[in-house]
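Example (one chain per record):
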Amino acid sequence: MNKAQEATLNAIFFRPTKADIRWSAIKSPIRALGGEVSERAGSRVGAKLNGVIAVFHRPHPRPETKKGAVDAVRQFLLNAGVKP
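Predicted structure:
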């Protein structure tokens, strides 16, 4: 995992939840941890890591992910065994 991916992972686990994380940056550490990210119908994005599956909505029209979605990604990573 490179420094940018580590910084994004730290931002996902940061409290209070940040609302300025770009969705494209969130996908990168999931892949670096051995996970898969796939496009689904509409604005849905599927993620799979360590056998845990989640579906998120890609933000639009702005690239920044809202706090609720960041919380959902954090919970997905915790469920998949990723520690802050």
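Caption: The first strand starts at residue 21 and ends at 22.
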